[in-house]
Write a structure and sequence with these properties.
Elements: E1 10-15, E2 19-24, E3 33-37, E4 41-43, H1 50-62, H2 66-73, H3 84-95, E5 97-99, E6 105-108, E7 116-117, E8 123-128, E9 133-138, E10 149-150, H4 159-170, H5 183-213, H6 215-232, H7 236-252, H8 256-273, H9 279-289, H10 316-323, E11 376-386, E12 390-395, E13 401-406, E14 425-429, E15 443-445, E16 451-452
Parallel strand pairs: 7-10, 13-15
Antiparallel strand pairs: 1-2, 3-9, 4-6, 5-6, 8-9, 11-12, 11-14, 12-13, 14-16
Helix pairs in contact: 1-3, 5-6, 6-7, 7-8, 8-9
């Protein structure tokens, strides 16, 4: 993937309704590098205001060769002007593409800036720091005679939003296939794109903290995005944005098996859109080899797996259910499985009592929040005392020993003495972690209706939701 065309594969031609554009001179296979070039007119992102931008451009254009200046002045300009400085600025604003390590700088490229926009673009632009050049790659097979297009906008949203942004910035209306869909198909497309955008905002606002406090929900959001992109146009650029989020969520929670699979999928897409020599391909190639090298590894180990801990003999659909940790609802009354760690979490996997918005609880205050689903904490009684209140030392499924203290109305007196024995199992529905003031964290139990102490080998599990794990 990312092969560079040995000969020019395009020609600059008139495009009806668009002026000049680049047309494929022959069939261009998906992943081909069409263009690689440096800008010949640039403006740094730290230029303070429009007046300074005009001065900067005036000085720079004045230093161009005669041929370069002719080529610059031949480019489109959708902004009115009364002098040379305003004219140069209008050409720059109409044609410039972002470049540089942070993409804050703007540059005019002799070839790449001739590529017109389409909302269903068949190519993409990327600043390759290793080459210090802008590259254009084919996102899909482009047929001879087909126009090569890229995407000008900041985000992929509904057609109305795209029309407004294109007109405000470039003074044209797009008539691509996506923008020309029949009304009912256009409405469905708008709904998908707006949902993807909404999920992008949610994931971004959740930030690094959200990857750890609500990993299941964040992964569900990315899963939904991937399905929406595949339903929309199998959009490579959209998937390139989605899979890295899935990589980060998995690694941040110690899940190296899923992280490697997601990284491998992102790597394949990066090779198509960016080329084998791009920094992202190098980075994700290393993550495929060893996902534990990522900076986020070790933030949480609640999903801990090794890279090779991938279930075998699963069909394609079941594998995707496992990969995305999709919840599969059982019939009412169906019992959960003890190895289902989402339904029967260890102590370290429980939510903190102050987590008001997480995979476990809907938003709200401590007294009003509602569980999103069912979970049950299981532990073995190791020791117990009953002075001021009943207190136990219990051992969870991972072997962690922690304090369990009863803050019920009767301070634990609701339990019969025959139920409190070493080796017996406690089962607490909707348990949360509590930070005690003078001891290690544990569980502060307040509702006697949410706890059972079954006899050994007689654990009666509560009905729970089965989770693909």
């Amino acid at each position: 993937m990312g092969a560079t065309a040995s000969l020019p594969v395009y020609a600059l031609e008139d495009v009806p309704g668009k002026g000049k554009g680049l047309i494929a001179a022959r069939d261009i296979p998906k992943g081909t590098r069409i263009i690689s070039e440096k800008p010949f007119v640039t403006v740094p992102g730290n230029v303070a205001n429009m007046e300074q931008q005009r001065i900067y451009l005036y000085q720079q254009v004045g230093s161009l060769s005669e041929q370069q200046e002719r080529e610059f002045l031949a480019m489109d300009n959708v902004y009115p002007y009364t002098n040379s400085g305003e004219r140069y600025q209008g050409i720059f604003r109409t044609n410039a593409l972002p470049f540089g390590p942070t993409l804050r700088d703007g540059g005019v490229f002799l070839k790449a800036c001739r590529i017109n926009h389409a909302c269903d673009n068949n190519a993409t632009n990327f600043w390759n720091e290793n080459l210090n050049q802008l590259t254009i790659h084919a996102l899909r097979d482009i047929s001879k005679g087909e126009e090569i297009t890229i995407f000008y906008l900041n985000a992929r949203r509904n057609r109305k939003a795209r029309v407004e942004e294109l007109w405000q910035s470039f003074k044209f209306t797009c008539s691509c296939r996506l923008c020309s869909l029949p009304p009912h198909q256009g409405k469905e497309s708008d709904s998908r794109l707006d949902r993807v955008y909404e999920l992008d905002v949610v994931i971004e606002q959740a930030g690094l903290e959200g990857l750890v406090s609500s990993p299941r929900r964040m992964l569900n959001y990315v899963d939904e995005q991937v399905q929406l992109w595949n339903e929309e146009t199998a959009n490579e650029v959209g998937l390139v944005r989605a899979y890295p989020d899935a990589v980060q969520i998995s690694i941040a929670n110690g899940d190296l098996a899923r992280a490697r699979i997601f990284a491998n999928r992102a790597l394949a897409l990066y090779r198509i859109a960016l080329g084998d020599d791009s920094p992202d391909v190098v980075q994700y190639g290393e993550l495929v080899r060893n996902p534990a090298t990522h900076d986020y590894y070790g933030m949480s180990m609640k999903w801990k797996t090794m890279p090779d801990d991938v279930p075998q003999e699963l069909g394609p659909r079941d594998f995707e259910d496992w990969l995305w940790k999709r919840r599969i609802e059982n019939a009412p009354g169906h019992l959960g499985k003890l190895n289902d760690r989402e339904a029967f979490p260890s102590f370290n996997e429980l939510p903190n009592e102050h987590d008001f918005e997480s995979d476990y609880f809907e938003g709200g205050t401590l007294g009003s929040r509602r569980p999103r689903r069912h979970w049950c904490f299981l532990a073995e009684i190791m020791e117990f005392t009953s002075l001021v209140r009943l207190q136990m030392a219990v051992r969870d499924l991972n072997g962690t020993v922690l304090p369990l203290r009863f803050h019920t109305d009767r301070r634990g007196g609701e339990l019969a003495l025959s139920q409190i024995q070493k080796g017996y199992t406690v089962a607490i529905l909707y348990a949360v972690r509590h930070d005690f003031m003078y001891s290690e964290p544990g569980i502060r139990h307040e509702n006697p209706r949410m706890m059972k102490v079954p006899l050994p080998a007689q654990v009666h599990l509560l009905p729970v939701t089965k989770i693909s794990n």
